[in-house]
Design brief:
The chain is of the alpha+beta class and 330 residues long. It has 12 helices and 11 strands. The protein is 43% helix and 26% strand. Strand 1 and strand 2 form a beta hairpin.
Length: 330
């Protein structure tokens, strides 16, 4: 972005903020406004004149200070470059989903937002979009998906209106498709997948179903009652996808050179010595983290929490058991 483009963006954002400020805190003087935005009073006078010329009904109150006449409303959408960029990230994330209806709607939302933005911000977003990558490997997965259009929306409606769902669900551990009747309780995105939390009538328990493993489904007209005392946050925490937990890991120096690039959270603390590196960060999904740690074998060790050590131990035992008979046929 050139300095001139940056200057235009900064002024556009300041003008938006100026209108919002005067609507919420009227009777501010030019000195007050200059101190608030960190600019000169001359700049504020120029901005106020620009607002007046654009049709914003500015007046000078009897009590002293500027205000906007009551009843004036901003246009339907007024975004700063930063806010627009945040929406861009959200839209690009939704466009990577396997549900075709989410991709289509995300495209339409993006076009509508772009159409009402000032040209400098439009051009800024165009440049940002061409330089932003979200999940570079998702695209190939999405193209090969046979997910039916509207599945996410259908399930969200079922969750909201408490409607039971009939579905054919693929179970990879048995390589089979099973017929299920479920009562949808929540939709959650974690471990890089959309997950349906639902009461499973076949297993008589609350289970987790990945949307990409649903082969067929339809929402019935039958209503259900939520299980008494069901707490989504508590359930997710039990599954290892709840509130963030303190994670302390110890890596060999060689392994950490690679691990540092892919640790799925911001490192809070890092301590190095001749033998290795100890890092501390916060993360919510212990199951995901346990699978991630497997790639480093004995070059990584979990110091905290104990629950993560136990998950990794179970995974290691299952892996060892799978290869316990070296003579077994594949």
């Amino acid at each position: 972005m050139s300095k001139n483009e940056e200057r235009i963006l900064n002024r556009t954002e300041r003008l938006f903020a100026l209108v919002l400020l005067l609507q919420n805190r009227p009777n501010m003087t030019a000195r007050d406004l200059a101190e608030h935005f960190g600019v000169s009073r001359r700049t504020i006078f120029r901005d106020l004149r620009a607002l007046g010329e654009s049709g914003v009904p500015l007046t000078y109150a009897d009590e002293g200070g500027y205000e906007i006449l009551e009843g004036y409303q901003l246009p339907p959408l007024m975004l700063t470059a930063r806010e627009a960029a945040t929406l861009l990230v959200g839209i690009e994330f939704m466009k990577r989903q396997p549900d075709a209806s989410l991709v289509k709607d995300a495209d339409e939302v993006g076009l509508k937002i772009r159409a009402v933005l000032p040209r400098p911000i439009q051009e800024y977003l165009d440049r940002l979009r061409s330089r932003t990558v979200i999940g570079p490997y998702w695209y190939q997965t999405m193209r090969g998906s046979d997910a039916e259009e509207g599945r996410w929306y259908d399930l969200s409606e079922a969750v909201a209106h408490q409607r039971s769902v009939q579905m054919d669900y693929y179970v990879p551990s048995r390589d089979e498709v099973t017929r299920r009747k479920v009562d949808p309780l929540a939709l959650v995105y974690y471990t890089d997948q959309w997950n349906l939390i639902a009461y499973d009538h076949l297993r008589k328990d609350i289970r987790n179903f990945r949307l990409d493993r649903i082969r067929k489904m339809y929402v019935s007209s039958e209503r259900f009652e939520r299980p008494p005392g069901f707490d989504l946050a508590a359930y997710l925490e039990e599954q290892g996808a709840g509130p963030e937990q303190r994670i302390v890991l110890r890596f060999s120096r060689q392994a950490f050179a690679w691990a540092r690039r892919s640790i799925p959270a911001r490192i809070e603390e890092e301590q190095s010595d001749e033998q290795g590196v100890t890092v501390t960060f916060y993360f919510e999904n212990l199951d995901y983290l346990a699978h991630w740690l497997l790639r480093y074998g004995t070059q990584a060790r979990v110091l905290e929490p104990a629950a993560l050590r136990e998950r990794l131990r179970r995974l290691a035992l299952a892996l060892a058991d799978q290869y316990s008979d070296a003579t077994a046929s594949p």
